[in-house]
Amino acid sequence: MAFVTQEQISQFHRDGFLALEEFFTMEECNAAQAQIQKIIAEMDVPPECRTEFSTKHEEQLRAQGNADYFLTSGDKIRFFFEKGVFDEKGEFLVPKDKSINKIGHALHASDAVFKQMTFSSKVQALARKLGLENPVVVQSMYIFKPPHIGGEVTAHQDATFLHTEPLGRVVGLWVALEDAAEENGCLWFLPGSHTSGITRRMVRTPPGTIPCTQFIGTEREYDSSQFIPAPIGKGGLILIHGEVVHKSEANLSASSRHVYTFHLMEAKDTLWSKENWLQPTPELPFPSLYTQN
């Protein structure tokens, strides 16, 4: 990993994101990809839990909010699928490994390979460079963006879903396990947009209420011409401020875009909202980045 300069840290604070090429080695990326294939091979998802992931507002409420499978995934490894991969009986129409949108949300705690990557000394060093005193890992995901069917992720802010008081305490680390280019759905950012707060939150509704989550407020309208792409090579890492607006386009290419991503929260003097969909559990309190091996 190249040394992260103070100038780069200043760039992150200015733009709300920072691309760091060659943060992880090819070997580390290959090990993560091999491990996820083992997890998929052992996957046994009950048909009623075959949830299609979506970022469209109403579909989010229906597909995720209604699903206990999603709400209770914070301390487990669970599977979320692309659209159109099941027939009406919930059986796969395509090979399993081509059907998955993402696997989440506790790979960092439940799998040795991803735990090693998450709590690596270079991630710890980067967090210290950012000035984080007591960062904890709140969630992790493996995102596939499969060829031809990898869906778009509409413009959003992570703090909509991972809310803290005060804001500005969450940062995403997005690791390209394959080259991420414009053709296969790299990230796009609205530079500087992390300074304007948030206008929308996804919150839990009272227990027993259907749906289980709802959105408060509305997403701003964004000028698509103001977004800039952030292509990055295999092994690169992109830091994502919790309030920076970002998106990715659909992957219509023949190449997948595998990513491992996780979120850190500065736990010092920070309140994690009890209304967030994701909650720590007795089995998995948010683990400290600095005390894990």
Using brief descriptors, characterize the structure shown.
293 residues, alpha+beta, four-stranded antiparallel beta sheet, 20% helix, globular, single chain, seven-stranded antiparallel beta sheet
Folded structure, characterized:
With 293 residues, the protein is of the alpha+beta class. Helix content is 20%, strand content 24%. The chain is built from seven helices and 15 strands. The strands form four sheets. A seven-stranded antiparallel beta sheet has the order 1-12-7-14-4-3-2. The protein has a four-stranded antiparallel beta sheet with strand order 5-13-8-11, with no helix packed on it. The chain has a two-stranded antiparallel sheet with strand order 6-15. The longest helix has 16 residues. It is globular and about 55 Å long. The two termini are 19 Å apart.
Can you give me a brief rundown of this structure?
The chain is an alpha+beta fold and 293 residues long. Helix content is 20%, strand content 24%.
Average of per-residue pLDDT values: 91
Q: Structural class given helices, strands, pairing?
A: alpha+beta
Number of DSSP helical runs: 7
Helix content: 10-25%
Oligomerization category of the chains in this entry: single chain
Would you list the SSEs in sequence order as H and E? HEHHHEEHHHEEEEEEEEEEEE
